[in-house]
Amino acid sequence: MNKRYFMFFMTLTIGFILALGDVSALFAQETASEEFTLEEIIVTAQKREENQQKVPIAMEVIKGDTLALMGKDNVDDILKDVSNVMINTSSDGMRVSMRGIADDSGVMEGQHVGGSTVAINVDGAYNNMSNVGNNLFDVERVEVLFGPQSTMYGSNSPGGIINVETANPKTDRFSASGSVEYGTSNLLNMQAMLNAPVVQDRFALRLAANKSLLDSYVQPDTKANDTTAVRLKALWSATDTFEVTVTGNWQNMINGGMMSGGVVPFVNQDDVEDPWTWDGQGVGNSEDQTTQGVSANIVWNTSIGNFELIPSYNESESTGRETRTQESFPGGPMVTQTFDMGRGNTQEGADLRITNSADFTLFTWILGGTYYKSEQKNTTDYVDPTTVDESRTTTQSKEAIYANITYPLSDRFRMNGGYRQSWDKSVGKGSFREQIPKKTRDADCHKISV
Q1: Largest CB tally within 10 Å, which of 35, 178, 325, 406?
Q2: Cβ distance 333 to 325 under 8 Å?
Q3: Are 105 and 115 in contact (CB under 8 A)?
Q4: To which H or E segment does residue 390 belong?
């Protein structure tokens, strides 16, 4: 065969194969596009129900089903795989940083005296308690919003917002679920949920409970964690435009310490199968904490706008005993002290928002005001009667008004503007009481304000 004809024939053959491959790829793409549909995730990042794909905010959404399958029940585990997010645990609780914006505000003797750069909202209510990110169960979704959102939220948080939305009662069906998880060190995590429509399409209750147990890693017959939590939500749809959701929660957590016991130094152990061996002396720093609270979400849709009021109240009390070895004074001898700790925290707040009605389509707007106040008190009672007891109180208050307008110039381009004015105040006080008989201690004291 002539070389020229051979090259011509090979070129036609290769072109035909490539063309056929392109045609089959086109058919494959059309088939795939017909079969594949992107799941619609509804979020409330802008204080209205929207498709996540149409919200102009950098955000990530983790669905409750995903959290349940992966066994994640606290904010630390949930955000561990989210990009540009770091979590540090300080003496005053968990601190979240986003995109390098970290919380570096002061701590006064274990108490936070500044606002959080990343706020955590549970069912729309701002919560600054140290245990807010723990023991999350029966969750519908977690929204992680990057960047400042202060003109749409009550909290002034330049780093971002974390919205935890627990599952609401369903008025149209009865449902129940439960799960049991078991692991080493007698880990036992049980969750249960019951949803009951009391009045079809009008009134429903949802009860969710969680029980977690974990033995000490080193000390025999000791619990490292024993947590019991209950949440009850009631939903009342009075009319098609007026709806009230009330949430009550209670939690008791007994924490035995990091490992609930001291460990024999590894350098003193030779040829042992398990280096995590209890030294027989050290004990974990136990703490018994009870938290309870109530919140409501009142929604009223009118022709003027959609009104939403979210009042909330939470309180927490904890007691525990701790043994600490430290210098008696800088450069002085080491001393071991045992003391009883008492911590009390109360917080109250309310957020009122008005958004445009569904009939108003020229632009979207939000107008709101917020109020928040918290008080945290720590007491330290030393077992040694010669050591001075301590008491510290931190009070925070936040008030703000905010507004936001988004105007769509086209399907792909929007113009956004907002305004916020806030008044924040934080006061810390400390007092030291002389060791005198218990009956007269509170009446005869010396106070030093810091």
Answers
A1: 406
A2: no
A3: yes
A4: strand 389-408
What does each C-alpha distance from 27 to 16, 17, 203, 418 come to in angstroms? 17, 15, 50, 47
Task: Please determine, for residue 17, whether its predicted confidence score (pLDDT) is greater than 50.
Answer: yes
State residue 156's pLDDT score.
Answer: 72
What are the b/e assignments for 135-172, b being 16+ CB within 10 Å? bbbbbebbbbbbebbbbbbbbbbebbbbbbbbbbbebe
Q: What one-character DSSP code corresponds to residue 441?
A: H
Asked if residue 394 lies in contact with residue 402, where contact means CB atoms within 8 angstroms, the answer is: no
* Residue (of 335, 430, 428, 336) closest to 380 by Cα position: 430
Q: Whole-prediction pTM value?
A: 0.75
Least confident of 30-34, 209-213, 414-418: 30-34
* Nearest of 193, 216, 126 to residue 162 by alpha carbon: 126
Q: How would you classify the pairing of strands 118-122 and 59-63?
A: unpaired
The strand order across the sheet containing 118-122 reads 59-63, 139-146, 160-166, 118-122, 125-126
Residue 56: band (very low, low, confident or very high) from pLDDT cuts 50, 70, 90 = low
- Give the chain's mean pLDDT: 75
**Which of the two residues, 428 and 91, has the higher pLDDT score?**
428
Are 53 and 59 within 8 A, CB to CB?
no
pLDDT at 283 over 60: no
Q: Which residue has the tokens 């948080």?
A: 157
Residue 195's nearest CA partner among 167, 228, 230, 165 is 167
- Fill in the amino acid letter for 44: T
Q: Where are the alpha helices (DSSP H) in 198-258?
A: none
